[in-house]
Description:
heterotrimer, A: mainly alpha, MetI-like fold, 12 helices, disordered C terminus, C: Rossmann fold, CATH 2.40.50.140, 2 domains, six-stranded mixed beta sheet, 32% strand
Amino acid sequence: MKQKQKWATVYLVLVFILLYTPIFYLIFYSFNEAGTMNQFSGFTLNHYSALAEDARLLIIALDTVRIALLSALIATVIGTAGAIGIYYTRQRRAQNVLLSLNNILLVSPDVIIGASFLLLFTLVGFQLGFYSVLLAHIAFSIPIVVLMVLPKLEDMNANMITAARDLGASPIQVLTSVILPSITPGILAGYFMAFTFSIDDFAVTFFVTGGGFATLSVEIYSRARQGVSLEINALSTLLFLVAVSLVSGYYFIQQQQRNRKKLSQLDPTVHEKAVTP
Amino acid sequence: MTKERKWLAVPYHLWIVLFVIVPVMLLLFQSFRGLDGSFTLVNIQTYFTSRVYLTMTLQSFFYAFLITVLTLLISYPAAYFLAQTRHKQFWLLVLILPTWMNILLKTYAFIGILSQTGFVNQGLNFIGIGAQQLLFTPLSFLIVATYIEVPFMLLPVFNAIDEIDGSMIKASRDLGAGEWQTFASVIFPLSLSGVRSGIQAVFIPSLSLFMLTRLIAGNRVITLGTAIEQNFLVTQNWGMGSTMGIVLVLIMFGVMFLTRRRRKGVTVR
Amino acid sequence: MTEEIIVSFDQVEKKYEKETVLKTISFDLEKGKFYTLLGPSGCGKSTILNLIAGFASPSSGTVSILGKDTRDTPPNKRKINTVFQDYALFPHLNVFDNVAFGLKMKKMNKEKIKSKVTETLKLVRLEGFENRDIAEMSGGQKQRVAIARALVNEPDLLLLDEPLSALDLKLRTEMQYELRDLQQRLGITFLFVTHDQEEALAMSDEIMVMKEGRIVQTGTPNAVYDEPINRYVADFIGESNIVRGRMVRDYAVSFAGKTFTCVDGGMQPDEQVDVVIRPEDLVLTEAEAGDIQIFVQTQLFRGVHYEIMGQDDAGNDWMVHSTRQSEPGRRVGLTFDPQDIHIMRINETEEAFDERIEQFATAAYEKTSKGGAGQDD
């Protein structure tokens, strides 16, 4: 038994190491005095100061965040409304059709999404650039928002709405004072997911961005094609720190919520249920 | 009551039409257009008679299959062990944290790691095998693609294993099954739903990882995705690109059909 | 005939981290009997099951099965099977494969498995359901599958962890009969866990009443019902009137301002005691004819009887189950027989209680009454 557990731990640790090696490799060489990613010749912060002075990259970074914040916001609004629409769709079949259509973009390879959006923008003569990228990001973020919000709607006690109506709430009041508050966690999760989808996207953006506009992913791609530049390593370190702080914040909030829940439903049989083989 | 609700969902329905239905139709429509814009079956004909295209498709399929198998082999035990650890939610988060790192940055890291004088070759030199050409080979494509896709397999498999009711395992042991028997006849069959969604989440994107083939495989591996990107953005042959896009969509539907949720086997809630 | 002991707990204690869930428990389970562990949720019932099935091991003390210490025996090597509260049927297997699971694990040959499974399904009246999916079965049917899945292995002991709690009232009563019948036909020892006292009374040969990790009283349903050891057991097993009283001397107790003849003794003179009278043992009469008088406050029609609540002159509340009707605001009398008065000493241990009952109850029966509620065998 003990022996088996030891092997399990060893295996997990090995997977951890494998998953983190490339990231730490990047971070490590961001401090390399020599400009390469293999011989470490001495410690320097030069690549970070170069990064700080790289106006083009900074603008691109800002644009990327701008696109992500904006597209996630709009996608969340449309997606939440859409989820409520699906929830209220009476016929099972119509609901299934809507859901299938919703999920098409989620399972489609991003090349397909990018190519077909490119066709769309060209057909209607839409100028490629900031707005085409923004629209594309909104478009591929909507289904994930729907998917995060819909379960919360289904978990909601439907009698609550009847009760609110019974107590004299108008449809809009029902929406704002009953439905929205009870699905808020889903909406926030949806926004968060949409935001990360947008930040991470490369392929779709690559297809629908014209020459003049770039996001970080596109910029990194074109720089990486030209070879190693330790400025990218420095950028990786910063982005990794951002990711770690976001994720630990998320984890912290989740833990707190869980603890609060525990307090409110103190269960005397917890220890009996806790016996797992 | 219903009127307001209808207005609420209008933007969403508009989105479905504009960004889901129309683009798919456009892709289909475009595949019937020649370079000069006329209606033609030439793209489809070319695709299905060209040995190059068909081998490429097969190859892409084969690589996606290999990547899926590799990620499954790595992720399943990890997910299984993870589900038994104490602070599993925390460790899960640590395991999938790398997915929050931009995929291109991770890919870029491998340019360093796999290069002639990189980390891996230094290691190979050290144990006496000597440096090998790793970068710009199909092997490097497999390594990096597997690396990138592992979390996407790990997560659904973990969720499926974690969702298995503890009393199932108890019941199995109670009925005389040993640890291995419990795994083979209860845990594994019940985790198959997770494996299926993992396959969906890994196989389909693996057909289209064009940035990897460009940055890591040095065009030694051409996936369907690479070919589509090539046709759309380099040679500007949108008709051919769309034809391949349709092929990719068809494969996608095939995979989804094969890995669909079976009514039997998964508890219907 | 010496009774064969299937399971024996000797000074068993169980702790989870800091919390003690079982406090030094000892008991034996004999072959062929129907035992019930009765207590509220969280009292440690399921822990006892887990210890017997092998999903937990005692912090101290020994759990032996058929005389052998089980410390190193994993669950799959014990000839004990469990019917789980939520059934824990395997959703990926059909009815046949669920029932066959244990036999397949033992690598029994296919023919034999088939005949045994068929036979067992017939036993729980599920013949013809072999190829059904678990999801297609109703609650009561799932319950039977779970029972068949355990029984087919011919266990020495069957553990049933609140198996009827998910069923509706009618099905539950039906299953109580069926379980009792199965147990008597097969002669397998059953250990049934429940928090439902009616279930316990209806099915068991012996009931173990638990409270906060201890067994407070063990006995036949009649014994536990008629001679509860304390206020807790009296309250838990059926509805009771429990009033404070004083033992005047042996066979005489004073409560509600009067002294009554009773069948208990062995206490200190003038000792404070709890007096229990079951609502159905109280007979409604005219006020003057009653042993005590109460002022009726509420009355509910319960189908078989009226449930009348009232208060006596000393301020004690009384509940009466009567087929006769009264009405709120009336003053009525209550009569009862000496053997309907149950005296409980405060904080008496089970051993002391048993000893005293042994001594006095039997003596008392010979002296005072013929028949009545007391049944002693």
